[in-house]
Design goal:
Blueprint: E1 2-5, E2 8-11, H1 22-26, E3 29-37, E4 40-41, H2 44-58, H3 66-80, E5 85-92, E6 109-116, E7 128-137, H4 152-163, E8 168-173, E9 178-181, E10 185-190, E11 193-197, H5 207-218, E12 222-226, H6 231-235, E13 238-243, E14 247-254, E15 257-258, H7 264-280
Length: 282
């Protein structure tokens, strides 16, 4: 297996990053998780836009133009012989002097990895069960618009959920409102309305989240970004998560209590599949 490191392809076992890299020391960086199907990057324009917006907001220089990052990622898929893959593009501020100040960290680090993933014809993921985390995310934090490398809260929340026998953690904000899952955005159906937390609740502006919202509007559904507590999920007609690497994942339990399922999820999954097929035909 190869990785792309800074400006070259390197065997994975030989790829190293400095112990003084600020991504390692402080989580001073960001990343994108992208799904590749048949050698193509799905929803790449949206990932590219978020990547470029993210480095700008953090004051990090993108080491290569986004078009070259795309080209190198596609070549990485070919070299690793993984046309269907989980891709991660990570950028850190790079190595620098000791301390929080970013001065002197002038050469950002770029790492691209690709790992085998199921093809488009694979069965959808089995439903997940959620555990509400005791850790809270801050509402209104501007950093939630960036997929930063500082994900310790998410890591701890996921570990806590897994220790309790759950697949994923439900994160609430400091007001007790639903924000997101540790590694996903969350949606639920309330009658004829598709609901999701607004970004001001502490939710990441997920790429698949955006796809689902756009699709719902195209279908003529009522969509609402809202501030609700976890009781809304228990009372809902169905809950699902959106994850760039997995697509749409049904949720069947929250805190050991069963949740309803809604057939409209399959309509969204079908639209997601159609979008992938359309991207492969161009």
């Amino acid at each position: 297996m190869y990785v792309f490191l800074d400006d070259r392809f390197v065997p994975a076992e030989e790829a190293t990053v400095s112990v003084f890299d600020r991504g390692f020391l402080y989580g001073d960086g960001l990343f994108e998780s992208i799904r590749a199907y048949a050698g193509r990057l799905f929803l790449w324009p949206a990932h590219r836009e978020r990547l470029e917006r993210g480095v700008q907001s953090l004051g990090i220089r993108l080491p290569l133009p986004a078009e070259e990052i795309q080209d190198h990622t596609l070549e990485l898929l070919r070299r690793n012989r993984v046309p269907d893959a989980f891709v991660r593009v990570a950028v850190s501020r790079g190595a620098g002097p000791r301390g929080y100040s970013p001065r002197g960290a002038n050469q950002p680090t770029l790492v691209i990895t690709a790992h085998p993933a199921p093809g488009l014809d694979a069965a959808p993921p089995a439903p997940w069960n959620l555990r509400t985390s005791r850790h809270r995310v801050p509402a209104g934090d501007p950093l939630t618009s960036v997929k930063t490398a500082s994900k310790l809260l998410n890591v701890i929340a996921r570990a806590e959920a897994e220790d309790a026998g759950a697949n994923e953690a439900l994160l609430l904000n400091n007001h007790g409102h639903i924000a997101e899952a540790a590694a996903a955005n969350i949606f639920w159906f309330e009658g004829g309305t598709l609901c999701t937390p607004g970004l001001e609740q502490g939710a990441l502006a997920g790429i698949t989240r955006g796809f689902v919202m756009e699709t719902a509007c195209q279908l003529g559904w009522t969509l609402q970004e809202t501030a609700r507590g976890p009781e809304a999920l228990h009372a809902s007609d169905g809950v699902f998560l959106t994850v760039s690497t997995l697509g749409l994942v049904a949720v069947d339990r929250l805190d050991d209590l069963p949740l309803r399922s809604d057939a409209r999820l399959e309509i969204l999954r079908s639209s997601h599949r159609d979008a992938v097929l359309c991207s492969l035909s161009h």
